[in-house]
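User: Can you model how zinc ion sits in this protein?
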Amino acid sequence: MAIKEQPKSPRFRIIANILLAVSGLFLLLNLFLPGLFASGPAGVPYSLFIHQVQEGEVSRVSVGQNQILYQLKTENAEPGQVFSTTPIFDLELPKLLEQKGIEFAATPPPKNSWITTLLSWVIPPLIFIGIWQFFLARGGGGGGPQGVLSIGKSKAKVYVEGESAKITFADVAGVEEAKTELVEIVDFLKTPGRFTQIGARIPKGVLLVGPPGTGKTLLAKAVAGEAGVPFFSISGSEFVELFVGVGSSRVRDLFEQAKKQAPCIVFIDELDAIGKSRSSNGFYGGNDEREQTLNQLLTEMDGFAAGDATVIVLAATNRPEVLDPALLRPGRFDRQVLVDRPDLSDREAILKIHAQKVKLGDDVNLKAIATRTPGFAGADLANLVNEAALLAARNLRESVAQEDFAEAIERVVAGLEKKSRVMNETEKKIVAYHEVGHAMVGALTTGNGRVEKISIIPRGMAALGYTLQLPTEDRFLMNEEELRGQIATLLGGRSAEEIVFNSITTGASNDLQRATDLAERMVTAYGMSKVLGPLAYQQGQQPMFLGNGAANPRRAVSEDTSKAIDSEVKEIVETAHEQALNILRENRDLLEAIATQLLETEVIEGEKLHSLLSQVKRVALHN
Ligand code: ADP
Ligand code: MG
Ligand code: ZN
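Assistant: Here's the modeled complex, given as structure tokens:
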């Protein structure tokens, strides 16, 4: 993969801009205040000057508006040396000088002719503009290397196919879902006829979403390698730079270039740098520059019709939650592909890819390494292989041994534990029982949908493991029993921890929050409490400035009612907790069996999961 139009790094460009600005300023100052930087006569405090006058050491004085220049009598100084001092408003000075018999005169104020005035105002800006233009011209000149200051010109790198270091889908392991999606895009670019002929519309924008280091950028490069069309790549942070208005013109530029070369792919890495929600800027307007850039991007994406110019926009982000909703609307990034952390078998596959680059010893067992690295993303695994190779070299070995990997894992984990989630063995065990607890309670109670997947691979930023339930049909209405079932399921995780470990961890806080919210809504909004009756209560204060008071009418609630609500909510949650505990106690052996299996495979899903969960024994409802 070759890179045409090698860009300078943004930091370098910023520094260059600052340097230029500073030198321009210096130039101006130098022209306007000639005395400032010239090496002048030695400066002396005014008090010393007066002292010297009174002592009779001074021979000649020249009094100017801003400066007094004087010479000393030769016995006190080198002949011809001139001293200067800054005058203070002193009407007594002439009198004093006369008294001491010192020769003095006033210097006339410097007379500027209109020509010098004009020149000093006009020339510096001209020089400044000249330098600017010079760099601009260098930067914009087609195929040549980009100039230091090519402001406004898109910094998109163009990857061209047919080079030796081409990245293909074979270099990316795991992430099958994402690969399938992107293979389709590549197919479309290669043979658009096949799609357009039956009237299929290919998505304009595809957004890759996932935690850092899971291979989003790598996937995009693989698309470039496979597609055989020009591939423009730019990072979101490169849009947002020093000068206002540049980001949006850069977007315009990028798409202009892209349209000329269609069919092609535009890849915007780290989209969140420009695509942050416009409303998330708080009260005081926010970042105009980024907003303009975002608006321009939206305009451009709307601008090309899906049919004619086949420009497909790929983007990647690890913070989808901050993106402006406008970006996710149909016709823009309407397809989102999850690039998640790899599971056990994917990790082994990724290790295999990266291990090709190093010499492996006979005792290396990649599967064992994969087992020991839950939570590692692709980038961490690549790093791990390299770390192990470094250790092998340090130990003067011919090839990398399992031992080196073991040590490398410890190093990488130590580094990762600080910045993200990598679980140790105990934590992994707790999470496994917790998730199985959710799943088993969920299997027995109604209102949850079917449990489709349990996983102890950390997902996203918050959850340690997760239990995925898919509704079997679209549901709009739920009855009381179903809601109680949902609450019990939410408490299933914590209940399992209580039963198995006889202790509670902090991991369930989100579950408890959701369970409590649900119970509160049952009481205050759905009228499902016998004590409080079918009334709508809204507790708590809402921030005034949100201005949605009308949509959320609040009833003043008396203290007694408030207490009653609290106790009803508590009753619902505790009953559900009891129910969850009963189910799990009754099925203790099965809990053990499923958790052991989950610890081994990290993910259980589909048919296998269904058949396991169908063994959960019903318990009499305790009410
Ligand atoms: P992201 O853009 O998602 O933060 P990158 O694509 O930059 O992550 O990944 C960094 C590196 O990690 C890649 O260059 C590659 O070496 C390695 N890597 C990440 N994911 C994978 C994967 N699924 N298969 C193979 N290598 C991977
Ligand atoms: Mg990336
Ligand atoms: Zn949970």
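A couple of observations from the model: The CA atoms of residues 579 and 621 lie 7 Å apart. The chain has a mean pLDDT of 76.
User: Helpful, thanks.
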